């Protein structure tokens, strides 16, 4: 299948979008997708096209790649956005880079926009085989979805029916100058090992294996859709996915968790990992919080509920703010609401994470540990170290979600009909 034919198959979807945003690394796949989309725009009416390049800072040539992508976008007369992210290289840099990349995409996508990614049929086969090796179920073996939500926008992979060979032929025919990421040849990386060592061997024996993989993934996708009418997902006090822990059998709980994760469209951990988590949830003492960390999320038991949280940034945070003005960061977002007693609008304050063992006296209440106050307000243990504490001149004047302190009230920092802070925790990022 040619690239233009593949794109024309999605023409109606393209024409109803607000913008067509291409995830543009500058490599052969994304450059060919962007170029073919521009060619299609010369034949058909299309919305504005924007190339989004995410600089992960993991390669020494990353800066040059960004310049190259900006130049290509200018030559093709499309918009260009550069987003620089930081990736934790200590643990699974590929996974961390993927999460950071999708967060960057969401940041620049608006309602009605369409994010186009250049994943093709060979990428899909690699994904399915890699998940099979890791013991995935029907949902995982269905491969990457062709379309799904991403933030306020939608994601579409229009080239899943196109092979890598088709794309390389297109790039050669149009003399595209592409970035050669040498890390793609490193077979120490699992996916590269499959691509360069395993799949060529499979193709030498079964040349039509891609079509077989594709048919199987379609069947499994349908099975997963019909089998995920599961335990009704609830929402915790912090807005995180949750469900009540009721079963007394580990096997039943294992099945519930498995189906719940599929229904949420999250990467599912290996079978044995879920089984051990289910056992701990049922057998651990009530004051414990068994947890399972996988990909970009944490699943944890708290009281009689299992909840799912996004991975928190490492370390605490500090930020400057003005009472009445919203603030956002990797730690979430802070807003302000009117209250009978609150802080004065326009006052300069600072934000920080709670200190271990910190105590405070909220207005009209006895002095207590901050942890006790958060516990009484149904804040899960996972988030208690992340709640923004609002300070002025090194004094705590308020805590998000709890109100102003007695000290702030006594020093007249607060006022009647003032403002109190409200915190919205980071949300799960779906990276499939």
Structural account:
By secondary structure, the chain is of the alpha+beta class. The protein folds into three domains: about 5-225, 3-Layer(aba) Sandwich (Rossmann fold), CATH 3.40.50.620; about 235-310, Chorismate Mutase Domain, subunit A (Up-down Bundle); about 320-425, no CATH class. It is about 35% helix and about 25% strand. The chain is built from 15 helices and 21 strands. It has helices at about 5-10, 10-15, 30-40, 60-75, 95-110, 120-135, 140, 165-175, 190-205, 210-225, 250-265, 270-285, 370-375, 380-385, 405-410, and strands at about 20-25, 50-55, 80-85, 115, 145-150, 155, 235, 240-245, 290-295, 295-300, 305-310, 320, 325-330, 330-345, 350, 360, 370, 390, 395-400, 405, 415-425. The strands form five sheets. Strands 3-2-1-4-6-5 form a six-stranded mixed β-sheet, sandwiched between helices. A five-stranded antiparallel β-sheet has the order 7-8-11-10-9, covered by helices on one side. Strands 12-15-18-19-20 form a five-stranded antiparallel β-sheet. Strand 9 (about 290-295) and strand 10 (about 295-300) form a beta hairpin. Helix 3 crosses helix 8 (about 165-175), helix 6 (about 120-135) packs across helix 10 (about 210-225) and helix 11 (about 250-265) crosses helix 12 (about 270-285). It is globular. Residues about 230 have low confidence and may be disordered.
């Amino acid at each position: 299948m040619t690239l233009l034919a593949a794109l024309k198959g999605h023409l109606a979807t393209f024409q109803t979008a607000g913008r067509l945003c291409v995830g543009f690394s500058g490599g052969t796949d994304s450059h060919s997708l962007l170029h073919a989309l521009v060619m299609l725009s010369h034949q058909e009416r299309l919305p504005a096209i924007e190339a989004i390049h995410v600089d992960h800072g993991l390669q020494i040539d990353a800066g040059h790649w960004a310049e190259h992508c900006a130049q290509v976008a200018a030559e093709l007369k499309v918009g260009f956005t550069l987003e620089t992210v930081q990736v934790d290289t200590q643990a699974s840099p590929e996974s961390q880079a993927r999460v950071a990349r999708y967060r960057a995409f969401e940041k620049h996508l608006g309602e009605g926009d369409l994010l186009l990614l250049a994943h093709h049929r060979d990428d899909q086969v690699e994904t399915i085989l890699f998940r099979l090796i890791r013991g995935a179920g029907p949902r995982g073996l269905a491969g990457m979805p062709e379309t799904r939500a991403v933030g306020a926008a939608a994601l579409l992979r229009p080239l899943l029916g196109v092979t890598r060979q088709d794309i390389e032929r297109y790039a050669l025919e149009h003399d595209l100058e592409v970035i050669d990421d040498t890390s793609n040849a490193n077979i120490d990386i699992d996916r590269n090992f499959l691509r360069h060592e395993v799949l060529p061997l499979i193709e030498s024996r079964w040349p039509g294996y891609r079509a077989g993989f594709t048919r199987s993934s379609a069947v499994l996708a349908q099975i997963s859709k019909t089998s995920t009418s599961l335990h009704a997902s609830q929402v915790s006090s912090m807005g995180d996915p949750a469900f009540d822990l009721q079963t007394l059998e580990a096997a039943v709980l294992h099945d519930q968790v498995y189906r719940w994760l599929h229904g949420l469209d999250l990467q599912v951990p290996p079978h044995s990992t879920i089984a051990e988590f289910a056992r701990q949830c049922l057998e651990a003492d009530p004051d414990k919080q068994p947890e399972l960390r996988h990909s970009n999320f944490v699943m944890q038991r708290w009281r009689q509920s299992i909840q799912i949280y996004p991975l928190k940034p490492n370390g605490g945070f500090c930020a400057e703010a003005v009472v009445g003005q919203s603030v956002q960061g990797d730690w979430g977002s802070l807003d302000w609401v009117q209250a009978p007693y609150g802080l004065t609008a326009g006052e300069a304050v600072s934000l920080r994470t709670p200190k271990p063992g910190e105590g405070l006296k909220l207005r009209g209440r006895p002095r207590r540990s901050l942890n006790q106050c958060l516990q009484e307000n149904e804040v899960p243990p996972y988030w208690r170290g992340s709640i923004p504490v609002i300070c002025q001149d090194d004094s705590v004047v308020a805590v998000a979600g709890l109100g102003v302190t007695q000290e702030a009230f006594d020093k007249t920092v607060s006022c009647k009909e003032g403002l109190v802070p409200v915190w919205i925790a980071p949300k799960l990022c779906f990276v499939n």
